Amino acid sequence: MRHFLLLFAIAAVARAFYPWPHHPMDTAHHIGNAWGNYQNYGSPYLHNGQDIMTGPLVPCMAIKPGYVKAIWLGGSPMYNGVTVGDSAGAGFCSAFMYYHIDNSTIRVQVGDTVQVGDTLGLIATWSVAEFHHNHFSMNRNSGVIWSSYGQFYRNPLLEMRPNDDSITPNFLDAYTGQRFAICRNNASSYQSKDSVYGTVDLICRLEDRINHRLWKVAIYRIDYTIRDTLGSIVVPLTRAVEMSDTIDAYTRTQSRVVYKQDATCNTQCNYDSLNRRYYYIFTNTDGDSLIEATDSLAGWNTTGVPDGAYWVKVIARDEFGNTAIDSMMVKVRNLPTNRHDVGVLKIVAPTVAVESGAVVVPACTVYNYGNFSESYTVRLRIGTLYDTTATVTGHAAGTKLGIEFPAWAANCPLGFYPVVCSTQLAGDMTPVNDARRDSVEVQLGTGVEWSGQPGIRGPKLDVWPSPADGRVWLALGVDAAVPVVVRDVAGRVVMAAEAVPVGGRLLILDTRRLASGVYYLEAGAGRGKGSAKFVKR
């Protein structure tokens, strides 16, 4: 037994850690995107590497002896890489993948043996300013030569030393006036912290930075617990999120388990460092470190506890042990005598677009979330053009109703108009779900010639994020600065500026001086002009 303990102690001390793949190799480097970062360039997914920030054409070195299993060539200087595995054979083995190496600088070939510190190539010059980086990952696959990346199976930052980052994660309010957001399980119907009922998702907003003053990255681990006001445990300390294990390559399933992404909790992470936001659904878990689709079925079932006050406590930490703790009191109210709550489920019409002069019957769907039959009014507004109410009588608990309003004729200037529909119930206990917001575009009718008003049709123009807090990104398919005109819903020009290129055929426009509302954006000139709408918070 004594020999066994001695051998175990020696093995624990001898665990191998690896240096960093850039000079100086014995110093921790900046991280621009972490393992598990939310990404969405058309479809959401989890980032399957650590983006180690460098300068352009900086040497990329092997951090472990091994065999070159693959050279990845993507057809441009940016999308190339080298995989160095633990074995030269055909069986399964682990490997480190070094990616975004300039293809003209790669210095190894498949089958080569490399040692620690050997230069594999030079990091490519990235299209976004100051985001030159090595997408660094741990992979697992089989074959003498790998035909695919294989499985992205472990966060490489856990295997590297030194790990002396000292920046502590930071909590922010996830909902107005609330540290954490609360919504019905797998839905976007939000509840007040003072009236929580049914099975709910609990959401926190967190940000972290790894050795960098600017780039906010995903948190490594979140745990949570729930107690009553006497200290009795309702939910024991539970691992909610851990960014350590396998990430599925470029699929949306895992991202939807971890991150909340809707109009209220709008997770986003792109190359705009000022506009990164992470909202974590920390009740989507079965307690292990794997991120699985079935985790999204979990939630806090408040019907299993008595009505009353409870403390929700969340602990967040990064790979280096820096820890932040926050908490919020919630009040569970499940008893029938406690809940009066109705809200708008959906605006049915008008939405998207209508032709100028068309007659539309505005409509919506409302739902009684409470436990009483309710009578109330519903109000629908279309810009400043239309404002009317409908009366609902005897709406049964737990049911939905379709509501129609008097007809509206779109005899108004072309452009975008906000559409707002809201319930008005005296004593409503959850006002956060009362209203829904959308917009409608009044367009030219078929065969009508455009004469300069909003509503034009040009090349495809994508604008994101929407809703936006500050800067917006434009994809118009050009790499040069373009003039931009922003109009309000009445067609008035409220901003004339220039969108500047940031690489990758993307443009950026600063909209921070605009007031909250719906806007119409025209970018470019002549036949190259595109149009789109966006919402400013």
From TrEMBL:
It comes from the Bacteria. Gene3D superfamilies: Glucose Permease (Domain IIA). InterPro entries: Dup_hybrid_motif. This is Peptidase M23 domain-containing protein. It comes from candidate division WOR-3 bacterium.
